[in-house]
Structures are given as structure tokens and as C-alpha cells.
Amino acid sequence: MRFQKLIPWSVVAVLSALPTGAAHAATGGEPAITQVDIAPCLAASAADDVDKATSACAAVIDNEKTTKADLVKALIARGALLARHDQIDRAIADDTRALLLDPTLADIFNARGELWLKKGDKPKAVQDFGAALKIDPNHEKARANHKAMARELERIGAQMAVAGKPSFNCARATLAVEKTICGNRELADLDREIYGSHLRALREARSPTEARKIQREQDAFVARRNAEFGRPGYDLKKAMQERLQQINGVDGY
């Protein structure tokens, strides 16, 4: 009786909620089932302590007795910690495992999408942002990420559509230099970049006088390119690269 009085009422309440067999074990009839302690893993991850979190979270994640709910929490905590320390592949692996256990986690789909984006895998990033929005259409971060990536993919698609094509119609090319540009993907891309940068410079001109100067420079480059192409020592690619740098500045645009 004296021992029973020493048991806190909170413990009594927990024991009363356990199945009969478990309560009997917890009171000494059989060995108690030890619950895996997830607190050190969560605390170390929150404190950004990589060393402690590595061992504490592994003790939870690798333990067969860990409940599904705690396993998901530990994976998410460790994944976030790894992401903060740029261990992208390991963070993706933890998030993926967590999502396999619980595919309703919109935050984790969004977090993994951001990790895919860091790796440069834009299609997978968009897919994860979309998955987050299916779960939670009001998820602000996922919606913003998905919108930004959709625009980026459209831009990439537009670039791919004109990749290897110069700024002029190759069907109407008559000069040797134009035909050479049309027949070389790298030179064609350079020509298109030069033309696009030239148009931007014209739009940003601060006065009509400056715009006319920019146009004269471009006309002079084209005339010099056409006249010098094929001569000994003339490097068309180098000349085009120098022109692009001249328009955009030393550090680019």
C-alpha cells in the first residue's frame, strides 16, 4: 500500500489507459516494453547540433520498436538538420522515407521540392510542389514555389524551342558568315544572345542619342564581321563573344 501511494497520479492515469497485459507488465508482472525516447533527437536537431543529432536520431530511426509516428518525426527532424547543413542527398532520403510512411505531409513535400531545386532537378521540384498543393491548396510556400517554377520551366521550354537558331532566318542566309552561323549550334546561340542583349540595351537607353550610338555600334560589329570572316587570323567565335561582353559589360547583365 505504501508503494502504491508513491506512484504519481499521472502515471496511474497512464497505466489505467493501458491494455490489461501492458498495465500488468508495467506494474511488475512481466518486463515492461521500453518506449523509444525521441526527445534527444528532436532537441539536438532543433539546437542544430549535428553530432548529437546524428547519434540520437539514428537511435530512434534504426530501432525496430520505434512507433510509426515517432519515426516520421525523427526523419523529418534529421532531414531538416541535414538540409540546413547542405547534405542535400541525405536530407532528400529522410524526407522521402517520411513521405512513404505518411504521404499527407504537405510541408515535407514542399521541403523536398526545395531540395530538388537545390540539386537542379526542376521537374521533380515542380512535382513535389504540386503534390503539396494537392494536399493543401492554401499552402502559401508551395503555391509560390510552384508558380515560380512553372514560369521557369516555360522560360526553359521557350529557350529550348530556339536553341541552335540564330536571330535571323537561315532560309534567307546568303553570306558565308551567315551560313556558317546557321550550321554551328554554338555560334547560332551566340548570335541570338547578341541580338537579344542589343535589343535590351536599346530599351534601356537613357536618350535617343544614346540609342543611336548603341545601334551604330551594333551595325559596325555586323559590318566588320561580314567583311573580315574568312580572312587569315579572324576568329568568328571570339569576335562574337567579345561583342556580347561589350554589350553586357565585363560582369555580364
Automatic annotation (TrEMBL):
Pfam family, one: TPR_2
Keyword Cytoplasm: no
Alphabetical UniProt keywords: Repeat, Signal, TPR repeat
GO cellular component, as recorded: cell outer membrane
Domain of life: Bacteria
GO biological process terms held by the UniProt record: receptor-mediated virion attachment to host cell
TPR repeat residue intervals: 106-139
Region forming the signal peptide: 1-25
Protein name: Uncharacterized protein
Annotated source species: Bradyrhizobium vignae
